[in-house]
Design a protein that fits this description.
By secondary structure, this protein is an alpha/beta fold. The chain contains eleven helices and eleven strands. The longest helix has 26 residues. The structure holds nicotinamide-adenine-dinucleotide (NAD) and (2S)-2-hydroxybutanedioic acid. It is an enzyme of class 1 (oxidoreductase).
């Protein structure tokens, strides 16, 4: 049985993500959890003629049952940005939500893969890892910050400038983290097309701040949901393909804990960080191999340097939140 749980399933990302996951023939049970409306979303999706069972779980009391026997837990629970906000501004509300969900995962499905979508990802992934460490159930191979939307945007935006670059089959490596300057697309490694320095500069900026385009266009009604659902389903499906079907050689860029992960020593040493997004080969146990950072152009080296200094603060903030026992404030 492969049970996948979506926490925050009634939200802007949660609903379309659950719809996409309902199409997977690798999932036998899709459990939808939210503090509101998950029962209705589950009833609706349960009529779709694919083999998986769908169950809805509403409210804290229903969370343990939702998580029991989970193979994979995907977390898009929490508030999105409004214009003028940074992802870090969401920490106040989302840190507590993610911490509490991680605690329940530690108690009810300690071996599950945990895929963190809730922002700020640079800090929420350390929060999940610290909670699992405290509960003595941490396996670095099993926790992922979902940065796939940056990869998806990179392919799409490059295609807009270079139509001969095929966006669905050509994957671009994106390293660092998931917010503004911490997002570093490695455009120098693209072999299919070449760029002028101006094109590199404007593409890099657009990829780093792609999220802002959507926040601005939605004008107070939230941030990316549909493209995120697509990216989240892509990452979940790739992980399932590797971990359930055993397909080898599948690689995605993702934000993971470096120490303790296979192959990660080099990146840990060269960044000096405990968490970093880079290409990761997925396998039966989650992370099979953290790939070395590719060769970087001079500009990319400087962007990575900037990303590292910002990530340091984001990571420390997430770790301290768990280890200092701070109580989250409920309002933005
Ligand atoms: N990683 C990425 O690339 C990426 C991309 C887009 C959005 N996001 C982030 O994803 C999060 C969700 O965005 P959205 O647009 O779906 O927001 P949304 O407000 O539409 O949905 C969030 C859902 O979470 C639920 N929720 C709140 N507290 C909860 C809890 N304690 N347990 C379970 N569910 C809870 C809400 O009821 C709601 O249904 C935001 O933090 C956003 O910034 C990340
Ligand atoms: O921009 C946001 O706040 C949401 C998300 O992180 C994104 O990149 O679209």
């Amino acid at each position: 049985m492969v049970k996948v749980v979506v926490c925050g399933a009634a939200g802007g990302i949660g609903q379309p993500l659950s719809l996409l996951l309902k199409q997977s023939d690798l999932i036998s049970h899709l459990a939808l959890y939210d503090i509101v409306n998950a029962a209705g979303v589950a009833a609706d999706l349960s009529h779709i003629n694919t083999a998986s069972k769908v169950t809805g779980h509403v409210g804290k009391e229903a969370l343990a049952e939702a998580l029991k026997d989970a193979h994979t837990v995907v977390i898009p629970a929490g508030v999105p940005r409004r214009p003028g906000m940074t992802r870090d501004d969401l920490f106040k509300v989302n840190a507590g939500i993610v911490r509490d969900l991680a605690q329940e995962c530690a108690e009810n499905c300690p071996r599950a893969f945990i895929l963190v979508i809730s922002n700020p990802v640079n800090s929420t992934v350390p929060i999940v890892c610290e909670v699992l460490k405290k509960a003595n159930v941490f396996d670095p191979r099993r926790v992922f910050g979902v940065t796939t939307l940056d990869v998806v945007r990179s392919s799409r935006f490059v295609h807009e400038v270079k139509p001969q670059f095929e966006p669905q089959t050509n994957r671009i490596t994106v390293v660092g983290g998931h917010s503004g300057a911490t997002i570093v697309p490695i455009l120098s490694q693209i072999k299919q097309v070449s760029f002028t320095p101006e094109e590199i500069k404007s593409l890099t900026h657009r990829i780093q701040f792609g999220g802002d385009e959507v926040v601005k266009a939605k004008d107070g009604a939230g941030s990316a949901t549909l493209s995120m659902a697509s990216a989240g389903a892509r990452f979940t499906n790739t992980l399932l393909e590797a971990s359930v079907r055993g397909t080898r050689g599948l690689v995605e860029s993702t934000y993971v804990h470096l120490r303790g992960n296979p192959g990660a020593e080099w990146n840990a040493r060269s960044t000096g960080l405990d968490y970093f997004a880079q290409d990761v080969e997925l396998g039966l146990e989650g992370v099979a191999n953290v790939l070395r950072l590719p060769d970087l152009s001079e500009e990319e080296q400087s962007l990575v340097k900037t990303a590292i200094s910002e990530l340091k603060g984001n990571i420390t903030k997430g770790c301290n939140f768990v280890n200092d026992g701070t109580t989250p404030s409920a309002k933005l």
